[in-house]
Design a protein that fits this description.
5 strands, 212 residues, alpha/beta
Amino acid sequence: MNRLISFEGVDGCGKSTQLNLAAEWLKGRGEQVVCTFEPGDTSLGKEIRQLLLAGEFVPVPEAELLMFLADRAQHVRERILPALDSGAWVLCDRYTDSTLAYQLAARKLGEGAGDLHEMLRFAECGVTPSLTLWFDVPVAVAMGRMKKRAEAGEKATRLDDEAESFHQRVAHAFTEQFESDSGRIARINAEADIEGVFRQLEQALKRHFSLP
């Protein structure tokens, strides 16, 4: 069993905050931890992220998908695999489940386009998360959080600014993924406060990896 854990959910679900808390918890247990994210956590990926999310040039959905997959392949080879090979826990903010939810479902690329799942697996370079933590929260709540972040001065990405119907399709896709792969995906009720969410995360880690 590898130690790659992906953190997933709609924008505004709180996954990034929980990833940092999980990293500190694991480090407190004496573990080696690498925190990473998609898109953009390689030198090439930074350029791809700028093209994908800045909004200066808006890719068509098909190009958007291919750019995310290019970022993932580079990310796996350059960051994730070396970290796993060193024995580290790898906590990744977004991975293939996000591509399934955002591009295949919300962009509707999965409709009549052949088996794109093979392309997603190809971009993973053989590396699938041992555990995926899905932070489940109503879209209205998540959008309210994103609004507060924007009011606090945090710049939104192009995907953050999509219509509510887009984010609803994303949320529905995450639900379907959980229902079809509950052995890998653990649902976290992300409406709770930060401590309450982390308690659920801690239990999921202990259960999945048989930690004391």
